[in-house]
Structures are given as structure tokens and as C-alpha cells.
């Protein structure tokens, strides 16, 4: 259930967003770390077939996304930076609509989302209109939604950005639990260094290049740094400035 990314290049007109990017994401919780503009969303767009591949390829468990995008998309759960919920529908209506798109009956959707929404403290808001929820609660609905079709892969693009501390903690803890309990391959993209734990597999992207990859603790020791913050600064800033 790994995701293998081979020699990806991506250009927007004459702006290079990704340069010869290769890595393998194994089952579990993987962190893609990079500053604004590093190329994280571009990579997510390629992983979800939102943009055509220009060079390189991506295989999900051996299957090329360019050849069978629809088959891969059925196995993908995605949370983008911008909400894609219908604000005028209730939480339940949004979730059953998504379920219907995947051929899943409302009763089954309810069975699947009840434990997730309960864990995320949102079950009592099930019949509220999404417009009435704050940003953190909307993001929790999106987390519940991306699990309805029981995907094998979960891709989250800065899922906690702009949220209050409690929402951030709740969401990341929930996703980490999923990685532990279910055999899913999860890619968590962020520029928030405090979201990284020492045993996380870490992929650091800067100016479109993967400048480091490996277990966080191994990278700390390899580069003789004491914290993720120091490591990140060491790797991303010209040494003269450190
Ligand atoms: N539609 C576009 N047209 C032109 N350039 C783009 C476009 N989208 C992104 N870029 C550029 O490509 C580079 C990578 O952008 P991308 O959005 O993938 O980075 P990111 O790491 O996701 O940043 P952020 O954390 O701000 O979302 C940046 O230099 C950005 O300005």
C-alpha cells in the first residue's frame, strides 16, 4: 500500500514548482514539511490527478495514476486547504451526498461517520447547516467525510492551518490514531513544525526540491540538530544566516 513517486518535475509556465522529486511513502503517518511556496499543494494536485503529469510518474501500490486515475481516486481520501463542503447543506446532507457519489447508502454513511464525529466532538451538530459551523468544525466534517468510502490512502493538505489549538490537536491526534489502527498510508502536509513527532517519517520540501527524507530522529542525528525547528532551519536557510 505504498505510494511511489518517481522523478517528478512540474512547471507553471516558466516557474518550476517541483524538481526531480522521488520518494516512497510507506503505510502509516508521513509528514511532508515545507514553507509556503515549497510545492506541497502542487504535489498533492499530482497525487490526486488534479493536474496532468509533466514528467515522472506516481504509483499507488504498483498502479500508475496516469493510467487508471478513477480506480486510484476511489481509494483516496483527500482534504484540501480550501473547504469543498456545501455551506447551505447540513453536515449530514454533505456526508450522505458524498456517500451517494461513491454508491454508499445513507444508513451505511451514518454508521461509519457516527464514531468519527463522536470522537471529533461534532455528533450533536449533525443536522446543523455547515454555514453555521466555525472553520475548525468544518475541517472536522471534512475529516469525517474523507473516510466514508474507507480509503486506503489519505492525503491532507495543511488540514489544520488557521485553526485554534484545540481543533488542531483533536484533528492531528485523530489522524495519527487512524494511521496506527488501520493499515492506511497517510500524507500529512504542513508548515507547522510543532506537528512533527520524532518517530515520524519526514519529507522536507524546499523550493520544489526534496532536501531531506527519513525518520525525523534519524535526520536530527544525521545533521546533529536538537529539534525539528533547528533541523528545519539548518536545512532550509543558507548556513551563513544560521
Ligand atoms: N497556478 C499557479 N500558477 C503559477 N505559479 C503557481 C501556481 N500555483 C503555485 N504556483 C507557484 O508554484 C510554487 C509552489 O506552490 P505550491 O502552492 O505548490 O506551494 P505550497 O508549498 O503548497 O505553498 P503553501 O503552503 O503556500 O500552500 C510557488 O512558487 C507558487 O507561487
TrEMBL record:
<feature type="domain" description="ABC transporter">
    <location>
        <begin position="3"/>
        <end position="232"/>
    </location>
</feature>
<keyword id="KW-0067">ATP-binding</keyword>
<protein>
    <submittedName>
        <fullName>Nod factor export ATP-binding protein I</fullName>
    </submittedName>
</protein>
<dbReference type="Pfam" id="PF00005">
    <property type="entry name" value="ABC_tran"/>
</dbReference>
<dbReference type="InterPro" id="IPR003439">
    <property type="entry name" value="ABC_transporter-like_ATP-bd"/>
</dbReference>
<dbReference type="GO" id="GO:0005524">
    <property type="term" value="F:ATP binding"/>
</dbReference>
<dbReference type="InterPro" id="IPR027417">
    <property type="entry name" value="P-loop_NTPase"/>
</dbReference>
<keyword id="KW-0547">Nucleotide-binding</keyword>
<dbReference type="InterPro" id="IPR003593">
    <property type="entry name" value="AAA+_ATPase"/>
</dbReference>
<dbReference type="GO" id="GO:0016887">
    <property type="term" value="F:ATP hydrolysis activity"/>
</dbReference>
Amino acid at each position: 500500500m505504498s505510494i511511489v513517486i518517481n522523478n517528478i518535475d512540474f512547471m507553471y509556465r516558466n516557474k518550476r514548482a517541483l524538481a526531480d522529486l522521488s520518494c516512497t511513502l510507506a503505510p502509516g503517518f508521513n509528514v511532508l514539511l515545507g514553507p509556503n511556496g515549497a510545492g506541497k499543494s502542487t504535489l498533492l494536485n499530482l497525487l490526486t490527478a488534479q493536474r496532468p503529469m509533466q514528467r515522472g510518474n506516481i504509483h499507488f501500490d504498483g498502479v500508475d495514476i496516469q493510467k487508471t486515475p478513477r480506480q486510484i481516486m476511489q481509494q483516496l481520501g483527500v482534504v484540501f486547504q480550501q473547504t469543498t463542503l456545501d455551506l447551505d447543506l447540513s453536515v449530514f446532507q454533505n456526508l450522505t451526498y458524498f456517500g451517494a457519489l461513491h454508491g454508499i447508502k445513507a444508513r451505511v454513511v451514518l454508521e461509519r461517520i457516527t464514531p468519527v464525529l463522536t470522537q471529533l466532538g461534532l455528533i450533536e451538530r449533525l443536522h446543523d447547516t455547515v454555514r453555521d459551523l466555525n472553520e475548525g468544525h468544518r475541517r472536522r466534517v471534512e475529516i469525517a467525510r474523507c473516510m466514508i468510502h474507507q480509503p486506503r490512502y489519505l492525503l491532507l493538505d495543511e488540514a489544520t492551518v488557521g485553526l485554534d489549538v484545540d481543533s488542531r490537536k483533536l484533528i492531528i491526534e485523530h489522524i495519527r490514531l487512524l494511521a496506527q489502527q488501520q493499515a492506511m498510508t497517510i500524507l500529512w502536509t504542513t508548515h507547522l513544525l510543532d506537528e512533527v513527532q520524532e518517530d515520524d517519517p519526514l519529507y522536507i520540501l524546499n523550493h520544489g526540491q526534496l532536501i531531506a527524507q527519513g525518520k525525523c530522529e534519524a535526520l536530527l542525528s544525521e545533521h546533529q540538530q536538537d529539534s525539528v525547528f533547528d533541523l528545519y532551519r539548518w536545512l532550509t536557510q543558507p548556513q551563513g544566516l544560521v
